[in-house]
Amino acid sequence: MNLRQLEILRAVMRTRSTVAAAKDLGMSQPAVSNAIKHAETALGFLLFDRVNKRMIPTQEAQILLAEAEPLFLMQDLISQTAAHLRAGRKGRMRIVATSELSESLLPQVVARFSRDHGGVEISLETQRLDDLLEYVETGIVDIGFAMEPHPRPTLDYLPLAQLDMVCACPADSPLAQLSFVSPTDLRETPLINARTSSRISSLIQEAFRRSAVNFAPAIDVRFMNVAGHFVEEGLGVTIMDELTASSKRYSRLKSVAFKPRTEVTISAIVPAGRMQQRLTQSLIKHAREEIAARIAAARQ
Fold it and tell me: What is the value of pTM for the model shown?
């Protein structure tokens, strides 16, 4: 017997009537009757005794249905899992991000995402940019988040926002009182440089070159969020993106507009040519909303 025949058997046993069973199953009464007759012929024994238009299950039918019950439980579980997947309440989301975004953005994005997808397993890897791209490219993760990544033909970069670079300085610095800071204003101030493997470092250097100011950092660090912590310790100033500067991790840092204006793009990164699952689309949506809200608040 196949699963459909077992479903019909169970319905008739429950209702004791082919008419009622047909109604429950959304079938015609003749179709139910024929299915029972075909099953009895194939099995070689009766499943029901017909008594006064009532269908009385035989002992064989009762034994057969008892053995089939685990199949119905498994079917219900599969149906429930499919419904959870459709509603985004089951699955997994594997994320990779650079250090800056793991600290300044992903906690808030994951919090937003989890409120909509409470049953989804989430993992976050923090990697340098080159490794991040490898993780997405090879399928170790579902999605990556980075700023100004170098292009790769095997990856699609989905822009989330354009971010301004700002000068991050101690809150009590004279620079904090300026309406904007240019490289000329930083001639006598120790500069902390984040040696990112993205294009951000070259964009900052180009801004200094356009201002005819020598780019000579006093301290080199690996990530922009680390440079921010150095600034809070009074070791100098740094040029970082406005999203990182708006992180709640900083309590003694002031961000001031940087000129010449330098913009960077923050992107979600996914494998090229692959259809995005619903969970990935939802995560990207929440990332866009979080970035927009944070930047709007920071620019007020």
Answer: 0.69
